[in-house]
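Researcher: Please translate sequence to structure tokens.
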Amino acid sequence: MKFSDLNLAAPLQASIDKTGFTDCTPIQNEAIPHILEGRDVAGLAQTGTGKTAAFLIPLMERILRSVPPPPDVSDETRALIEKRAFKDWRPQNFILILVPTRELAEQVMENIAKLGESSGLRGVAVYGGTSYDKQREAFRNGVEFVAATPGRLIDLYKEHLVDLKQVRAVVFDEADRMFDMGF
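Model: Translation complete:
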């Protein structure tokens, strides 16, 4: 399947085109349609097969489709938008991506920056060993994605800097590794 076959929001498709992605990898081919429909997915694939894009692209699409469509849009397009949109998405809502390490949090953030470039979708990497200031500021300004290690996320929650009631979807990236590390 090609990304252009997915009828993605124009800004998201523009970012995908800019990265040079054209064809979905097997994990993307299997996961993206289910996530677009709001279903839970568990996926397993080798490193470098596009797992991060397999969850980021459909979640970005769902956020972008949560903005009410213009009145002049066709009934077919309106139905697609309503089917994919997060119901009642609000500016303070976000997607939580739990990761085992700061390196993976940064890697996920790089993908969010690339894929969200044309749409203005933002994210923050949340992990220990760094100042709270940048992370605190990101939550104040609003982000759509939070890539976090469990320890720092718990710290921010205890300090009332992050409201977990605003989470609309959760991704456990490298869950097996988090279990191995004792999370």
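Researcher: Any highlights?
Model: Strands lie at 94-98, 123-126, 145-148, 167-172.
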